[in-house]
């Protein structure tokens, strides 16, 4: 049995930002400086809530936010586990130099007799008096649903544009006029996928926000591989949600590959997963869920490699050219 690790977290209701954010950012620090490693299990929501004297729903909110940022995976019956994707690598690269700078700052502030909480609160307020660093970079908002492989799209946008990208999930926000107006004011570029193009365009049109639509396709090598499977092979396509799995399966059918028995499932459908996987001869997983599935079912699981359509790459390169001006 794997030895359970102990992590010391704290909450302070007197701070100017809520306890949800306090817990989330502390966990991100533990991951970012390597104290929590890929594969490590986080405490259960009940356990951490009891230790901190909080409501369990507060911890569940934190874990869900960390999952949405690609830092943990949540599986019913197994718990919450630090993931191993590109988001973890990026956090490690970011936090190590940040840790050194903060340690030096904390030491200097303490030597001068400053109260650290007051010092950093004042520092945050002082930063608001200055224009944001690299003001020439557009602020990009990706509007997607949780069911599709949104980490793939976000990563592609970040790599192509070198911009900070935030994600708005359609399930979490009904895109009412107030939320859309706020997004239209905060972000220079609104990007969505072909899956939700009409809905997002309609919502943002009244605020004169241009919506850029990008799409993805799959590698030809995968089509050739799947086309060779025997008649009646039971193939399951897995993404974050069932809608993402259906998108994956549809690309195969559109290519004229019809000899298979295809099924789609999302990692969020915990009650269906076990039975579906047991009946599958082959599992194709999106990049967002592949690390987890390849550990659980290595003999069946293959990566479903996606890439942006050429026209989408061109659109992102246009944004990148704006950054460099």
UniProtKB/TrEMBL annotation:
Top-level taxon of the source organism: Bacteria
Cross-referenced Pfam families: GntR (PF00392)
Name assigned to this protein: GntR family transcriptional regulator
Domain HTH gntR-type span(s) in chain numbering: 17-85
Family matches, as InterPro entries: Tscrpt_reg_HTH_GntR (IPR000524), WH-like_DNA-bd_sf (IPR036388), WH_DNA-bd_sf (IPR036390)
Keywords tagged on the record: DNA-binding, Transcription, Transcription regulation
Key word Transcription present: yes
């Amino acid at each position: 049995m794997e030895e359970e690790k102990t992590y010391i977290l704290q909450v302070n209701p007197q701070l100017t930002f809520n306890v949800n954010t306090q817990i989330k950012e502390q966990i991100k620090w533990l991951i970012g400086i390597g104290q929590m490693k890929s594969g490590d299990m986080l405490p259960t929501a009940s356990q951490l809530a009891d230790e901190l004297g909080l409501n369990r729903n507060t911890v569940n909110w934190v874990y869900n936010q960390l999952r949405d940022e690609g830092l943990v995976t949540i599986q019913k019956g197994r718990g919450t586990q630090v993931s191993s994707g590109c988001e973890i690598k990026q956090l490690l690269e970011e936090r190590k130099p940040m840790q050194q700078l903060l340690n030096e700052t904390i030491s200097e502030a303490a030597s001068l007799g400053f109260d650290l909480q007051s010092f950093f609160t004042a520092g945050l307020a002082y930063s608001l008096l200055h224009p944001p660093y690299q003001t020439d970079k557009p602020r990009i908002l990706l509007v997607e649903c949780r069911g599709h492989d949104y980490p793939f799209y976000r990563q592609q946008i970040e790599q192509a544009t070198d911009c900070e990208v935030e994600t708005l999930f359609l399930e979490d926000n009904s895109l009412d006029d107030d939320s859309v107006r706020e997004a239209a004011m905060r972000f220079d570029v609104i990007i969505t996928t072909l899956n939700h193009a009409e809905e997002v365009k309609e919502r943002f049109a009244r605020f004169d926000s241009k919506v850029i639509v990008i799409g993805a396709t799959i590698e030809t090598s995968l089509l050739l591989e799947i086309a060779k499977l025997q008649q009646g092979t039971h193939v399951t396509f897995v993404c974050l949600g069932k809608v993402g799995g259906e998108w994956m399966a549809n690309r195969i059918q559109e290519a004229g590959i019809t000899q298979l028995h295809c099924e789609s499932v999302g990692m969020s459908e915990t009650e269906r997963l076990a039975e579906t996987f047991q009946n599958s001869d082959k599992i194709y997983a999106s990049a967002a869920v592949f690390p987890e599935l390849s550990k659980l079912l290595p003999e069946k699981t293959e990566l479903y490699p996606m890439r942006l359509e050429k026209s989408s790459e061109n659109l992102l390169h246009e944004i990148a050219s704006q950054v460099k001006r």
